[in-house]
Amino acid sequence: SAPLRDLAAAEGKYFGTAMTVGELADPAYRDLSAREAGVLTVGNELKWDTTEPARGSFDFGPGDQVVAGGVAAGQLVRGHTLVWHSQTPAWVKALEPADLQQAMVDHIAAVAGHYRGKVIAWDVVNEAFAEDGTRRQEFWQLKLGDGYIADAFRAAHAADPDAKLYYNDYNIDGIGAKSDAVYEMVKSLLEEGVPIHGVGLQGHLILGQVPSTVRQNVQRFADLGLEVAFTELDVRMDTPADAAKLAAQAADYSAVVSACVAVDGCVGVTTWGLSDKYSWIPSVFPGQGAALPFDESFRPKPAYDAVAAAF
Ligand code: XIL
């Protein structure tokens, strides 16, 4: 069938995927990504540990390589991510509050400034909430309090006024305590005039557990006037895969893509990689995997056909 990027575009949406420098070195994978994805999210190389390993010392080399790969494939690029508790150097975590605030603003100015005009969107703040809807008790929150999120968005907007600025998180795909809390936060930010333009639903899902309220959830964020995107979709299962699991996975992928297609404000769906060969799942969730639309040999799985059909 036609590439997913074309099928999505015909619906006014995008299909995207994540890419890392390591994966870019695999020509067959690079070609697969170029064929299927219209949008590329930089998978690891724009995280703080890569871009500012020591204070004021910036490395945009790896990020630039992934961005160049996207440009070569005719893809638009999403930036990921400016403020997160993970993949952030120890020197950041050790700063006193006033200094941490300054380091955050300086980091955003430098990184978003470097990529100004080169990315369509930034995941400005990633994973700031706990499962029960309270703020995640990590160093950003503990040292700076609630306000760091608004400050991060303001700094990102100053550095790149044209990029769409997203709040991004997992387990906010359906209605629940965590997505309710994110909803209330983004509503308040909008009321305060904070430059936030989108909400990223990561979509790290478990086989057979797509929330029934995904479409309703996407709709309520869109009704705030925000863009919504599925930013890191994968559907993990206990391995090995079998025909029944792959069929169930196809239905799960279809449900997510259909929810995006059904809501005007949903701009696109990005999977966290294309092939099981490079998925992050097995290393983080032992015994699980087979989460992406192509198998380890880059053969399309039932999930691929389901995504194609759902667009
Ligand atoms: C993952 C990468 O895929 C891995 O290579 C890395 O070791 C850890 O991070 N949510 C996110 C992504 O926002 O940045 C994470 O990416 C997956 C979970």
Fold and architecture overview:
This protein has 311 residues and is an alpha/beta fold. It has one domain: Glycosidases (TIM Barrel), CATH 3.20.20. The protein contains 14 helices and ten strands. It has an eight-stranded parallel barrel with strand order 1-2-3-4-5-6-8-9, surrounded by six helices. Strand 7, helix 11 and strand 8 form a beta-alpha-beta unit. The longest helix is centred in the last third of the chain and has 20 residues. It is globular and about 55 Å long. The model has no long low-confidence stretch (mean pLDDT 98). (3S,4R)-3-hydroxy-2-oxopiperidin-4-yl beta-D-xylopyranoside binds next to loops. (3S,4R)-3-hydroxy-2-oxopiperidin-4-yl beta-D-xylopyranoside (XIL) binds next to loops.
Keywords:
eight-stranded parallel beta barrel, 311 residues, alpha/beta, binds (3S,4R)-3-hydroxy-2-oxopiperidin-4-yl beta-D-xylopyranoside, TIM Barrel
Q: Report mean pLDDT, rounded to a whole number.
A: 98
Order of helices and strands: HEHHEHHEHHEHHEHEEHEHEHEH
Low-pLDDT runs: none
Roughly how many Å apart are the termini?
Answer: 12 Å
